[in-house]
């Protein structure tokens, strides 16, 4: 998948971009887990064998090993298949199908852990968070049979319920669960129960799409189809307060209300952030909205929510689903635009709907109708366990050697070796600067055998490729 960078100004945060491309229409390229640099070139790509298989929530996290009491940086993501009409209609659109899981990979791109859900629930693409306790906190979903006639749905129907689950990473044992159906009234849903007719009787009343753990044992849970965010006591399971929806404990200041939101996060100082999809099927009398990143101030004495900062795109975007707002070190904000094929970075003060280009530092567009559920910028040092890859071909009176190393973030240059046999190689190009995911190096040597060595910023050899024979 080729990404087009449309804006790149000084001041962006450090680290590459983490994307999990897929499409509900016609995929351009392959689905999978993709790390891109600021130029849009790939750093690492793990393609999937079918466009029906997807990754989601791909990012860098810190893994705590409770046995060794050591931490390490890892890559995490969900992998599975989604119910995407018109090809699949037995679950609501976007729901995870059975068979998914979560992966944890180390800095050498080796699998550390595979995590599954409990209680017969399916691992959900919306959230997978590692804690400092050596556990994983995530969302899991499954249809629960129910008579939906009190809500205007079918008698032999079901609710797509969500559980917040926490498992011990060392043992896989379930430590905690919280069920939406036990604490949230489906009658408050903004998604009509009659919509179950298009998904084999399954009603997506809640659509839990994020959970964030606060420092004091609270959970912040976003329910897209309730238009609400809930502050939950983890110990008792009780909802302490509700923001938005039909039973909001807060009133809203100008432009502070939200609809179909994603990615609710605690922020310092009685603030929360989210991605306000907000574009479609709005209540009567509500002004037309554009999707945007949103940070709110919560005043608990007056029970009011007011806008702290907003992050809009230029041109304006309408994303019916998905999206995230990520706080970056230094105060910038990174926005993944969900169902719109963009990701952007802004200086902290943000902008307004009337001036979506103000404070824009970085912007990139995915090809065609490709999208990514969330997009992140994270610092990452990748040192692949596997060697670099080389290829060579003749070109007139000289040879062109191609060098790449999928996932290496330390490679700055390439050294080329050549010789008449695989065991008689000598250096023919001492230092060729890395020019992208694949670097082409011309040499007058005819080989016909070649090898490349990856060099770091100091010129030290990191690892050598296998010896290859020139083609042509």
Automatic annotation (TrEMBL):
Q: Which organism is it from?
A: Streptomyces yaanensis
Q: Which PANTHER family match?
A: ASST-DOMAIN-CONTAINING PROTEIN, PQQ ENZYME REPEAT PROTEIN-RELATED
Provide the protein name: Arylsulfotransferase family protein
* Entries under InterPro entries matching the protein: Arylsulfate_ST, ASST-like
